[in-house]
Amino acid sequence: MGSTERGGELTRADFPEGFVFGVATSAYQIEGARNEGGKGDSIWDVFADNKGLPHFDYVLVSSDILIYLIFDIEILFSEHIIDGTSGEVAVDHYHRYKEDIELMAKLGFRAYRFSISWSRIFPDGLGKEINEQGVAFYNNLIDFMIEKGIQPYATLYHWDLPHNLHKTVGGWLSDKIVEYFALYAEACFANFGDRVKHWITINEPLQTSVNGYGIGIFAPGLCEGVAAEPFLAAHHQILAHAASVDVYRRKFKAVQGGQVGFVIDCEWAEPLSDKMEDQAAAARRIDFQLGWYLDPIYFGDYPESMRQRVGDHLPRFSEKDRELIRNKIDFIGLNHYTSRFIANQPNPQPDEIHFYQVQQIERIDKWSSGEGIGERAASEWLYILPWGIRKRLIMLQGNMIAGLQQFSFPLLWMDDEDDPSATLDQVLNDTKRVGFFKAYVGAVAEARKDGADVRGYFAWSFLDNFEWAMGFTKRFGLVYVDYKNGLSRHPKASAMWFSRFLNSEAAYSKPDTN
Q1: What is the mean pLDDT of residues 378-403?
Q2: Torsion 390-199-209-48 (CA) sign
């Protein structure tokens, strides 16, 4: 019996021996070395270079997980990135990967979810001429991980599309992207699959679809007011995922024996009341996040609630498409950040983009008493609610099709503000993040006890890094990176808590079970 049964004491023994605890990063956020090793530009390289304002035709008054709140468009700096920075150097992982992997191993992590830069493998994205320097970098990284006892979990796409594919074919708005992605995936499987046994095709396709092709606050920065574009970008990401799984199963699985998953981000949607309309709104909210990407794979089409509300803007799958995507998944990665109360809203705000209007929901961050739904992290949208991940994992298990035996790897995170005036001792003492991980690890243990088939837990992020449109103003790392003093690495209290936990020392927490 796990120790969560004994008054809230949480230890590594609450999870089975094979349960994976790891950390995660992404290439553009940490690697740097933009112009080294034969790498081509990605859309984020170019997006961060652009010093003009996004062409907003509205003021965004709602948020979705990673969508940053903008209440007054004039408060933005003139750059796409709020502090005018970029990932050109990032935290220089390209040159310091051995230092980072050694620290990871010293802390006790035995799995690392990293991403491969598509434009470092195929600089123009076309899949005709492989960049051997890029292959060599990832071979060295993977070999060193294995040498240090760390299992690689490789993500093929974490938002950094080769810019040439955006410029020449239209990026994720073109059906040609499916073929190019499959060629890239095949090259990665062929070069790294003898050692990488867990692959993730695409990370958080919702963020690319909505933020990149609907709102324009993420690369490639499209916000032309065309309602169909986010749904078209999502459609092609689903097909690209399936095409790469198909390649793996046909050409590599028998020899390499690996698995290929899909990582989806999803809040927990708690109905505001017992009213039927609020219950339906909460279910609809999940449909527009999780169902958008998983229903086609499991059931052959998008959720009915999306078909009803999106109409002709939602693409159709041909019979050939359905055959391609059917059951093309070995595991689900669930990226979870926060939760909200959800109420039905038949008259949404007219200045919201189409994606939000058609959901007809209201996201609420307060209890009926007026008290906040939970403790807030540094970002305005991020509330610490461990009961949400427990409910999300249990419902995900309940939604699985019997016999497919899919399992999940949740990834969770919490941020701090970058405070230039704080001392090193102050920034390393991240007690709120320690409490966050205690509570959320405990909630995952509770979900497993309730029947959720969860096989691992990854913490975001191993290092402080370039946080997309927020630049270096937010810090999500277990390890502090000193941007002013040579990018030196310093484990925070949260990293040391994980180290003690992974070495079976007791970590006290009573998960909030709502």
Answers
A1: 78
A2: positive
